[in-house]
Amino acid sequence: MSAGAVVGVLELVGLYVFATSGALMAIHKGFDVVGIVVLAMLTALGGGILRDVIIGDTPPAAFANVTYLAIPLAAAGVTFFVHPLARRLSFTVLVFDAAGLSLFCVTGTLKAFEYDLGPIQAVLLGITTAVGGGVLRDITARETPALVKADTHLYAIPAATGAVIVAAAHEAGLPMPGIAAGAAVFVFVFRLVAMLRRWTAPRAWQRGPAAAGER
Description:
The protein is 75% helix and 0% strand. The protein is an all-alpha fold. It has one domain (3-200).
């Protein structure tokens, strides 16, 4: 399977799980059906649109391929009816978000290489693709984005790790289908473990009386 085919498959799966996380957050916030659809679409498509605009792949896939619109709509519809099965909506949102994060950091990095970007640029584009939709979802839902929230569990770091793995494998000429799938699984597990173990990124280092007074 070519890198392009890998990107296509992973991106379609990522669209569904990211859209589900957006729809679940909308339901958790008490949004109506319009809000559910809007949040599902923003979460699923935001990062990919930003990625495509940056690399000049226009119109973005979300507007050139009707499948990219149909999948988030389907996810919103399914979630609208089956959400009572998700008893703990907040945690379920995070699980689906972790799945989308893991898939999109891989697809963003691989697509960057298709457009002949270097490994560092590819990693940055992979991170942007992974976190873009979640940031738009959180802002629209009037939440501080998990990307910048001080006490959030590791978010961008797992995505960056996955993007680095894919970029390194690409530069080493390793077989990409297996590496891409493995990197996505690794990021998903990394993010879940970070949530369960409450791992957070370090804050700015402080010393002296100010730091002592905060203890």
